[in-house]
Structure formats: structure tokens, C-alpha cells
Task: structure prediction
Amino acid sequence: MDMRPRGQNIRARNKALRYSIKHCQCMKIRSHEAVQNRIPRTTHSARTGRFSAALALVAGFATLLFAGLLTASQPAAAQQGFGNFFTYQQPRKRVLRRKRAPAADTAATTDAKPAGKADAKKEAEKSGPKGAVYAIVSVPDQHVTVYDATGRIARSRVSTGQAGFRTPVGVFSVIGKSRYHHSNIYSGAPMPWMQRITWSGVALHAGVVPGYPASHGCIRLPYSFAPQLYGLTKVGARVVVTSRDTEPVVFSHALLPLPKMQPPPVGSQQALKRDASVELASMGAPASTMTTAAVPEETTDVDSTKPLNPIAYAAALRERAVADKAVADKAAKEALAAAQAAGEEARLAVDDVRKAEADLKAAEAKVADLEARAAAPAPAAAPAAGTPEATTSIETDKAAAQSELARARGALDEARTREAAKTPAAFAAVEAWKRATAAAEAAGDLVAQADRRREQVSVFISKKEGRIFIRQDWKEVWEAPVTIRDPERPLGTHVYTAVDAAPDGSSVKWTAITIPAEGAAPKEANRGRSKDKQEQPESRAPTPPETAAGALDRIELPEGARERIAELLWTGGSLIVSDQPRSYEMGEYTDFIVLTR
Result:
């Protein structure tokens, strides 16, 4: 391969091409001049001229081929390809991509970089979120800020919805997460690190963040920050989207309840097992069906006398409910077996009665036939029928039939007596099975209730609806009317979050987020009215926005509301107060959603 520089190779190739073209043009001009001047030539001379022209043409092509193959130093990839003879496709230039700078506010998460990998791991463990984690998205500032019990832990730029696809503003929560997700609206567009906040398609996910609103309603996150936020949040984490930047403040108020600490639940599975065994024994169930249910051993490590917070109490309640359900399921299974056995015995007793009745009818018919034969006169054609031997045979058969009739009557009485005992027992066994099944279903409901109580509680007070709502694990728990003083004044929208709590429940750290009110659009002057009427100023001054404390001061909770909230409240619980009603975005698998725009 020619090791000369690429520029020298190209110049040599171009020079060879120019020489070959010039040589061909000269040969063509000479041939043309010979024809124009009509120079007489002999046959030998003509053949010699044509041979020379062909030789010159071949030499020209050989020169071109030589210049294209030898003088041009092609790369190895081009020499192995199937390009033309005189040139080759130049390889594409490789674009070197520079690594993007991290979009997250690293200064907010860590103060200094650890020295080594071990220190980095320890630092990561120490810098994990504490308490409840929630995020605030500021649409005009195009950034998201993440908070926990200690304050701000991360911040990143975002890209919200462009004109015509504005991102909704209000109070939301993470209702679904997916590491690898593709849009079912926009032709399967990739949406990695997706965290859904509405079922209508709004979510936080990794994407292009140009520095201005560019999405179709979602909240795009930089690829360097999306995994970090994905790891910080859990399903149910609160997400607040505002039209102006706002920050949470540490807050306290007398209306915010303290959690209710409760002693561990008392076991009941032994009583269930004892009651089930007694009921089965009273029904006369066989001993094989009265096996005792295996009761799980107590595995709770908490002290039996130490009060538990609502979440720990729910865990202990679930453990006990699971044990009760195991006993109830076993009792229902045994009751079903006993009911089936009693039903089979009752069916056999009924069959015995029917068979005894059929045997009795046959015996009665036989006796009646023999009596009729004995009373009938002997026909003249059969003189042997009236002989003493014939009469003795009829009497013997009649006596045997009478004995068989007596046995059939006795068997029928016994069958009816047995059927009279078995049929009510079968009905009683069925009723016992129904009660055992209901008890098993109730135990299952207790397990589901305990599972629900392990999740954070959400409370919403709506001035528009005039009611207080309690939801937990995205399920409705309780609602009641609420009284709000000065209903003509707006409450605003405020989110109170229990970010941390003392282990004994003696205190709770609350934060308050006040969502800025949406500015009303200026009213346009009506055409056709006089200038004086248009320029009349409004005498009413604008009402100042309500503060977080002022909103709670105007609320009177119904009786029993504080107790219900206290039984369920722990870290992560929240209270939302708003003028707005519940959003149409709410569904069976969502927390409270409040739209302020």
C-alpha cells in the first residue's frame, strides 16, 4: 500500500487523469485532420493508422486504470468494497460525543465527594432519604425539587408541556412506576424511568430537556437525573405541580392530630379453633374431619406490652389476621367435609326409605294375591286345585308372605326413623358450613384491612363539596360533612405532610406547601358600551390569599374525624385543603388528585 500522505495521492491521481484525457484528445484531433485534408493513404497506411489509434486508445484506458488503482492510496475497507474503478466512498467521520454534565443539583445532595469506593458506598447509605419523600415541580422555572424530612435533597431541570399540551397544575401522587415503558398514545415512544401521576397519560420520565416547555403534557427529566428520582420515590409519593415556585415550610397547628399508639392486638385463633371443634363435634362429625388447624407461631419481635404506632400495629394486626384466617379456612374446610358426609348419609337414609316402601308394596301385593287365590272357587277344568294338598300349599305361601310383609313394615319404620335423624343433621351441617365460610371471609377481610392500614393515609377537605374524605391504600375509608367558617372567602390549596415522627408518637414534624393561586385573566371591555361605563373601576379590593394556618383555623372537623385520622396517621400521611373538588382524574387506583388549573 502507498504510504504517501493522502493529499499527494490525490494530486498524483488527478495528474494521471489529465495526461490520459489530453492524450486521447490529441489522437482524436489528428484523426479528424487527416479526414478533412483527404490525404491519400494506401491500404497498408490506413490499417496502420487505425491500429495506431486503437493502440493509443487502449494505452489511454490502461493509463486511467493504472492511475485509479495504483496511484490512489485507498483504505483497506474501500479496497475490499465494490465501488467504481476511479474513486471510493470516503468513510464517515466519527463524531465524538462529549459527556453531559449532571443535571441534578449535586450541591444539594452531597457536600463533598467521598475519597474512595467504600467511602462512596457509605456516603450513599448515609445520604438516603429520611422520612416522607415528595417533589415540587415549578412550571415557569422548569425545574423539580425533591424534599424529605431533612429538607431539599435534589433538584433538576425539567421540560413540561408546550402550548396546547400544558401540564396540569395541582396536587398529584405517584400511582405507577415502570423502568422500561413505551407510550400507548404516541406510537410506542420510549418513556424510561416512568413515574405516572394520572391515568390520562401524564408522567415523569426521562427525555430530551431543551430548557423550555417541549413535551406533550408529561414532565421530562434529564437522563442523568431520572434514575436518581426513580430510586428516591415510592408508589404513593406526593407530587405537587405549581404555576409559581414554592417551598415547604415546617408547620404546626392544633388541628393536626397526633398518631394514636395502641397495644398489640390480642390473639383469637385459639378461640376460633375451639369453637369450630365444638360445633363439629355437636353435629356428630367423624373424628377424621376434626383435625386441628396449624396455628402459626408468633413471630412479632415487639414487646407485648409496648404500644405500637399505627403502621407497626397494622403489621401485627395483619400477622394475627393471617393466623386467624388460616384457622377459619381450616374450619370451613372441615365444615364442608362434615356437611358433605352428613348429606351423603341423609341421601342414603332417604334411599333406604324408598326401597323399604317398595318392598312393603311388593309384600302387600303378594299377600293380596295369595288371599285372592285362596278365596277363589276352583275351576271345573282343574279338579286338583281343591285337593287338601293344594290348599295346604296356598296356606304355606300365604304365611310366608305375611311374614315378609311384617319384615318390610319393620324395615320401613327403621328407615324412616334413620331418615328423620339424618336429614336435619345434614341441614345443620350445611348451616355450620355457611357460618364457617362467612367466618373465613371475615378473616380475609381483616387481612385486607390490615394490608390497607399499613399504607399512608390521605385526608382531603374540599370547600366546594363541603366534605372531608379519608383514603388509604387508594381506597375510600370514611367521609362526612365538614363546616368551614366564612365560606365566601377562598381557602386556597394547601398540602400538609407528616414527614417525620417521634418513635413514641409524642410529636410529628409537619410541613406545609401553599400552592399559589392562578391569576385571573383580565376582562376585555365590551364593544358598543360607552367609554364612561368601560372606565368605571371596581370598588371591591382583591381578597388576599389565605395562609396555611388561616385555612385550618376556619375548619371545624366533624365528631370522630380526629380519632379516625389519629388511628391511621404516621410518617407519610398528608392533609389537603382546597377550594376545589376532587378531580375527574381520580379513580379506583389513585390517591386524591386536586387540579388548581
Q: What stands out?
A: The mean pLDDT is 78. The two ends are 71 Å apart (CA to CA). Residues 310-375 form the longest helix (66 residues). The chain has four domains: 6-79, 106-247, 269-376+394-453, 457-517+544-590.
